[in-house]
Amino acid sequence: MNKKNIFIFLGLSALFLTACNTMEGMGRDIKAGGRNLEKSAKENKPN
């Protein structure tokens, strides 16, 4: 039973670490999209 628990723990750890990297990348993409949207809004702002 102990070996089974270790295997499950290692599998879940790998899954969570991969998810963190994916979420970090998605966060960067969303942030860059927001910057581009702000830049476009400033450029097209009526005077």
TrEMBL record:
It comes from the Bacteria. Keywords: Cell membrane, Lipoprotein, Membrane, Palmitate, Signal. PROSITE patterns: PROKAR_LIPOPROTEIN. It holds the Pfam family Entericidin. InterPro entries: Entericidin. Residues 1-19 form the signal peptide. Belongs to the EcnA/EcnB lipoprotein family. This is Small secreted protein. It comes from Candidatus Megaera venefica.
